[in-house]
Write a structure and sequence with these properties.
Elements lengths: L4 E2 L10 H7 L15 H21 L6 E4 L2 H13 L6 E5 L4 H7 L4 E4 L9 H7 L4 E5 L13 H17 L7 E5 L11 H4 L3 E5 L10 E5 L25 H16 L1 H22 L4 E2 L10 E5 L5 H10 L2 E2 L15 H5 L4 H4 L2 E5 L6 H14 L3
Parallel strand pairs: 1-11, 3-4, 3-5, 5-6, 6-7
Antiparallel strand pairs: 2-8, 7-8, 9-10, 10-12
Helix pairs in contact: 1-8, 2-8, 3-4, 9-13
Length: 381
């Protein structure tokens, strides 16, 4: 390989130069604490609120519905724990293929897993059966981080709406909310919350060419959450601590860029992904794509190479200058097979022979051609 080719955009994206430029003043001359009362600090507060308003506009939300966090993991924890600690005798439903930052906090409460098809799509009939009189929260990620599966959130939201209507008829006053982890979706889809029917949404700056440790939880007006971090009362009492103004400015800039060009980037990467899939079928006929492209976001291909060890193949690709993943970066140190691949019916052996290729703004067709040739050589024999 003549150059390094990065295909792990689902784990982290490089910061957009426009984002870095927007953030830079807040490390230097605009360093003030936005809670201070003097003029320079009040100007920084105004900039922070402008960033909040920009994110809200892209979500079709009110600024007061945007809570800054240190990434989607914190946002997911705040959504799950924040709701459940308000309704201690209630239950929640999470999909079987959620990120661990949803599954782990959910385990602290009475929860049920929503099954998915062998393509990773939510079983809507199973979801409807699982909703009961004690269900207060349903958490289903918009785009899965390992398979790229796009879930039918609008249809799911209609099921939630139906459940609400049934509760009114039975005098059940318990609310029911729909949360989605949209960390992988912002670069490719419109995230207007009313269109999707969402009550809570998590966004991660590091997946949309923004700064790491930046994120947002959208909380629909009227929803009361118990905070995770208390002390100073910042972020409407939901996230105490001096605000990361530079991170908020960077996130707002990155999210604005991503939402402005999502249609164009979706179309461009769909073409590259389809070329990648077709080339694999042509030159590595034994390879198997672990999901249907029909239901997938354009940036992820999860591919099985029968007879291969995925960690060994990943290291050989790395030595040749190609960076890919065996699964979620957050679970990379675990010897356990992916719970996502297990949920769609793959055996441990099949999961251990699978790699995730995730593409981004710098990915080009010429890169794909080189990678397919390299894969054919490494898996030969």
């Amino acid at each position: 390989m003549k150059k390094s080719i990065y295909l792990d955009y689902a784990a982290a994206t490089p910061m957009d130069p426009k984002v870095l430029a927007a953030m830079k003043p807040y490390f230097l001359e605009r360093f003030y604490n936005p809670s201070a009362t003097y003029l320079a600090a009040r100007k920084v507060r105004a900039d922070l609120e402008a960033a909040r308003a920009k994110i809200a506009a892209n979500l079709g939300a009110k600024p007061a519905e945007v809570i800054f966090t240190a990434g989607a993991t914190e946002a997911n924890n705040l959504a799950i724990t924040g709701v459940m600690n308000k309704f201690m005798d209630s239950e929640l439903l999470v999909s079987a293929i959620e990120h661990k930052s949803v599954i782990v906090p959910a385990a602290s409460f009475k929860n049920h897993k929503i099954p998915v098809s062998n393509q990773g799509v939510i079983d809507l009939q199973a979801l409807e059966r699982l909703i009961n009189e004690k269900t207060v929260l349903v958490s289903i990620m918009m785009v899965n981080n390992e398979l790229g599966i796009l879930q039918p959130l609008r249809r799911i939201s209609l099921l939630i709406k139906k459940a609400r209507a049934n509760r009114i008829k039975t005098d059940n006053s318990l609310p029911i909310y729909l949360h989605t982890d949209a960390a992988q979706a912002g670069n490719f889809y419109n995230l207007k919350v009313s269109r999707l029917g969402i009550d809570l949404m998590s966004i991660n700056g590091s997946k949309i060419y923004g700064p790491k440790q930046s994120g947002v939880l959208f909380v629909k007006a009227g929803i009361s959450l118990a905070p995770l971090i208390v002390g100073g009362g910042q972020e409407f009492g939901l996230r105490s601590g001096t605000e990361n103004v530079a991170g908020a400015i960077g996130l707002a800039t990155a999210f604005d860029i991503a939402q402005t060009q999502h249609t164009q980037e979706n179309k461009r990467l769909t073409k590259i992904r389809d070329t990648f899939a077709n080339s694999l079928q042509k030159y590595l006929s034994t390879s198997v794509i672990n999901h249907s492209l029909k239901y997938s976001a354009p940036h992820i291909l999860n591919v099985r190479f029968p007879g291969q060890d995925n960690e060994r193949l990943m290291m050989e690709l790395d030595e040749a200058g190609v960076q890919v993943a065996v699964g979620s970066a957050c679970s990379a140190s675990s010897d356990e097979p992916s719970h996502v691949l297990s949920a769609i019916g793959l055996s441990q052996k099949e999961a251990k022979s699978s790699l995730r290729f995730s593409m981004g703004r710098s990915t080009r067709l010429v890169d794909i051609n080189q990678i397919v040739k390299l894969l054919a050589r490494l898996t030969k024999g």
